[in-house]
Write a structure and sequence with these properties.
This is Glucose-1-phosphate adenylyltransferase. Homotetramer. One of its GO terms (molecular function) is glucose-1-phosphate adenylyltransferase activity. Pathway: Glycan biosynthesis; glycogen biosynthesis. With 396 residues, this protein is of the alpha/beta class. The chain folds into two domains: 255 residues, Spore Coat Polysaccharide Biosynthesis Protein SpsA, Chain A (Alpha-Beta Complex), CATH 3.90.550; 107 residues, 3 Solenoid (UDP N-Acetylglucosamine Acyltransferase, domain 1), CATH 2.160.10. It is built from eight helices and 34 strands. The chain has a seven-stranded mixed sheet with strand order 5-4-1-8-13-10-14. It has a seven-stranded parallel sheet with strand order 16-19-22-25-28-31-34, with no helix packed on it. Strand 4, helix 2 and strand 5 form a beta-alpha-beta unit. The chain is elongated, with a radius of gyration of 22 Å. The N and C termini lie far apart (65 Å).
Length: 396
């Protein structure tokens, strides 16, 4: 028997993340590793668990295998209830018809039957590619208190970056009077976070209308939200004051990881009352060898450090050989760095092997090495390069 839910969360996790280059060649953007332990999708899933939302539809599409395996039954986030939990929802055939999700609104539309099983009062629509901690229950309470039909979470961004976002303009009571999708000349710096609360019966009718419009992009920001505003629906902005980062570029992903190394980071991963949950791979403790030097870094379980690591993030199972120097870098799970290597301002993906004497990067542009790359002895990866997954690099 299906239990009625106050709110069902729909997590959009099918993003290609093309601006992350080689890091998303073989995985969806929400599956990209972060912070020495996590994946990006851990954050919205943990937010749901911490907010008392126990039914989450995870909508996958691009390169879904790793993400599907990772979410599994939802147990790491306590989202494995028999009457809900985390459920992976890829596009599927219906009768004689099947198609990819054509936009954010279409992804929800194609899963109307899933949502209606729980007869929710509200749906919470989330993006799977942002780093933040947020109690969604407070946003839902705000939505209910305002008597809103739709509520959009917003955050102030630097004015020079505002054109990258959906911009929300409000009156003095917080009611939305205008929504501009990535405007070239924004009127404010109040940006949509891509987090929405809707009354289910209201948004259902708009999803049906949007699906019937052959000219629609089937997108919330471009189509559905403007249509609701034009129809006079009650729409409010919910102002979020915490840390929030769109890690959709190499630079922003690197910056967000480096920000964890601040003495008092804006994003507190050590907060007991609002933890970020993830899969535990049961690695042994890390080992720092005799003569090794580690300064201001995150060192994951199972790492073996015999060289020098400074201002860097090492994921579980990474090996750093004797005489090697790693600075201002991110090295992901199970990568093996040999002796006398130099790695500077780089992102190295999972299961990369560097033989002795390899040089990667420089002190200005970020260098990125894709998963499974093998760099032979004394080979050089130049500053700012992006190395495709699986390549074998030899000394020139």
């Amino acid at each position: 028997m299906i239990t009625k839910k106050r709110c069902v969360a729909m997590l959009l996790a099918g993003g290609q993340g093309s601006r992350l280059g080689v890091l998303t060649k073989k995985r969806a953007k929400p599956a990209v590793p972060y912070g020495g332990k996590y994946k990006i999708i851990d954050f919205p899933l943990s937010n749901c668990a911490n907010s008392g939302i126990d039914t989450v539809g995870v909508l996958t599409q691009y390169e879904p295998l790793e993400l599907n395996e990772y979410v599994g039954t939802g147990a790491p986030w306590d989202l494995d209830a028999s009457s809900g939990g985390a459920l992976v929802l890829p596009p599927y055939m219906s009768g004689q018809k099947g198609e990819w999700y054509s936009g954010t609104a279409n992804a929800i539309y194609q899963n109307i039957n899933f949502i209606e099983r729980y007869d929710p009062d509200y749906i919470l629509v989330l993006s799977g590619d942002h780093i933040y901690k947020m109690d969604y229950s407070k946003m839902i309470d705000y939505h209910r208190e305002k008597g809103a039909d739709a509520t959009i979470a917003v955050i102030e961004v630097p004015m020079e970056e505002a054109s990258r976002f959906g911009i929300v303009n409000t009156d003095e009571e917080g009611r939305i009077v205008e929504f501009e999708e990535k405007p070239p000349a924004p009127k404010s710096n109040t940006a949509s976070m891509g987090i929405y609360v809707f009354n289910w019966k209201t948004i259902r009718s708009y999803l049906m209308q949007d699906n019937d419009d052959p000219h629609s992009d089937n997108d919330f920001g471009k189509n559905v939200l403007p249509a609701m505003l034009a129809a006079g629906e009650k729409m409010y902005a919910y102002v979020f004051k915490g840390y929030w980062k769109d890690v959709g570029t190499i630079e922003s992903l690197w910056e967000s990881n480096m920000e964890l190394l601040d003495e008092t980071p804006q994003l507190d991963l050590h907060e007991d009352g609002f933890r970020v949950y993830t899969r535990n791979y049961a690695k042994p403790p890390h080992y720092i060898g005799d003569g090794a030097r580690v300064k201001n870094s995150i060192i994951g379980d199972g790492c073996k450090v015999l060289g020098e690591v400074e201002n860097s993030v090492l994921f579980p199972g990474v090996t750093i050989g004797r005489g090697t120097t790693v600075r201002d870098s991110i090295i992901m799970q199970e990568s093996d760095i040999g002796k006398a290597c130099t790695i500077d301002r780089a992102i190295i993906d999972e299961e990369v092997t560097c033989e002795d004497g390899v040089v990667i990067g420089g002190d200005k542009k970020i260098t990125v090495v894709g998963t499974g790359v093998y760099a032979t002895k004394n080979s050089v990866i130049a500053e700012g390069d992006m190395i495709e997954p699986g390549r074998v690099l030899k000394q020139d």
